[in-house]
Task: inverse folding
């Protein structure tokens, strides 16, 4: 069974890299209408990740609406940081684009059923195991 973790504004704020946190504070000071934008991004991310998991009927869902599968936590965090940075006009290193791509691939694979979330929990890491009907039979 998959372990779920809270993904909240406080958790994201505490995990922001120092440079992004500093830029965010300056951005909010310069754009007071953006004061709630990070909160909105966190809520949008939780909805998106939970919707992706719920799209596969083989996945169980946690009842708490502010949780995501723990195996998705870093993907979700990278996704928020990337989207916040893009809105603030941050020029990211190429590795950051790779992290964002990996998060998007994970989302699509979970959403289309290519990676059942419960299978990931068995190994403690995201992995794919072919359904039994596709595995070779060994004598």
Result:
């Amino acid at each position: 069974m998959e372990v779920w973790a809270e993904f909240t504004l406080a958790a994201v704020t505490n995990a922001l890299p120092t440079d992004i946190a500093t830029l965010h504070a300056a951005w909010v000071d310069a754009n007071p209408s953006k004061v709630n934008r990070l909160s909105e991004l966190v809520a949008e991310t939780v909805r998106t990740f939970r919707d992706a998991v719920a799209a596969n009927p083989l996945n169980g869902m946690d009842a708490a609406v502010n949780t995501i599968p723990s195996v998705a936590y870093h993907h979700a965090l990278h996704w928020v940081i990337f989207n916040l940075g893009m809105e603030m006009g941050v020029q990211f290193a190429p590795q950051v684009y790779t992290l964002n791509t990996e998060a998007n691939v994970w989302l699509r694979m979970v959403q289309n059923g290519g990676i059942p979330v419960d299978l990931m929990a068995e190994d403690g890491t995201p992995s794919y195991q072919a359904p039994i009907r596709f595995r070779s039979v060994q004598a």
Residues 37-54 form the longest helix (18 residues). Residues 4-124 form one domain. Confidence is low (pLDDT under 50) at residues 121-125. The first strand starts at residue 4 and ends at 6.
